[in-house]
């Protein structure tokens, strides 16, 4: 009898809200240190929220400010494939979600799920071609709104997008900052898209991630469909608690 799991592709994922590369209250620019920390995790696919695409003024004000967009600076030579979804656009800057991948990204699309008002939110959907995996892997980087009513609408749009764009048999990973401190997203995503939250599945409750120095709220999530997860973890406070106000989540995904 052979062990079928021995031949199953495995990929590691990381999700973190990087707060535009600044510490809490924008006191210090930490993107170079954050890049080092992300590299040490060694994830195959990285889901990033609040990533600056450009800011015309900051380059002259902060030491270590990269010339390239922040997602390119973070990807560097480690993640040859990346996609960026611009959500918030100002007079001199824009930021949004990004996905960095060691595997080819054969398709990407950013979905605007903003609800009327000042908050702009998006869902970045990418399709990955993973060696040894006969069906392409779909990944979605999410950043949902602060208001409960907005989140409910955005969760419905996420479920609709999955039904329209993701084959029922395809491996699917959805990760990011859901701002779901009331813990209402899990039932919606299970009923509407068949998604399981990996920490709830492994430990019975979602991970506490915010604020990173003393996590109390379960804002960040990793969901999967047609995949299993081994030992999801909240990454240690050192060095992460001074790199972002959100604690990162990592997991090993078995396809």
TrEMBL record:
Record-linked Gene3D superfamilies: Endonuclease/exonuclease/phosphatase
GO molecular function: endonuclease activity; exonuclease activity
GO cellular component: membrane
Taxonomic superkingdom: Bacteria
Keyword match Hydrolase: yes
Short name of any one Pfam family annotated for the protein: Exo_endo_phos
Domain Endonuclease/exonuclease/phosphatase: 33-246
PANTHER family: CALCOFLUOR WHITE HYPERSENSITIVE PROTEIN PRECURSOR (PTHR14859), PGAP2-INTERACTING PROTEIN (PTHR14859:SF1)
Name of protein: Endonuclease/exonuclease/phosphatase family protein
Organism: Ramlibacter rhizophilus
């Amino acid at each position: 009898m052979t062990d079928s799991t021995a031949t199953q592709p495995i990929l590691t994922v990381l999700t973190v809200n990087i707060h535009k590369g600044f510490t809490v209250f924008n006191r210090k620019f930490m993107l170079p240190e954050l890049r080092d920390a992300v590299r040490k995790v060694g994830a195959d696919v990285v889901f990033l929220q609040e990533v600056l695409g450009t800011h015309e003024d900051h380059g002259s004000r902060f030491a270590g400010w990269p010339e390239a967009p922040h997602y390119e600076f973070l990807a560097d030579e480690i993640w040859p494939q990346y996609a960026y979804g611009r959500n918030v656009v100002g007079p001199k800057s824009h930021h949004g979600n990004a996905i960095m991948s060691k595997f080819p990204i054969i398709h990407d699309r950013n979905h605007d799920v903003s609800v009327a008002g000042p908050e702009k939110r998006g869902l970045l959907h990418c399709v990955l071609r993973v060696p040894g995996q006969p069906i392409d892997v779909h990944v979605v980087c999410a950043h949902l709104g602060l208001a409960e009513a907005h989140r409910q609408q955005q969760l419905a749009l996420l479920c609709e997008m999955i039904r329209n764009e993701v084959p029922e048999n395809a491996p699917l990973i959805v990760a990011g900052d859901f701002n779901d401190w009331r813990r209402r997203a899990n039932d919606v995503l299970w009923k509407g898209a068949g998604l399981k939250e990996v920490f709830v599945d492994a430990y019975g409750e979602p991970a506490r991630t915010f604020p990173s120095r003393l996590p109390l709220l379960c804002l960040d999530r990793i969901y999967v469909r047609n995949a299993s997860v081994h030992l999801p973890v909240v990454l240690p406070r050192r060095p992460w608690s001074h790199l972002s106000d959100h604690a990162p989540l990592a997991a090993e995904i078995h396809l």
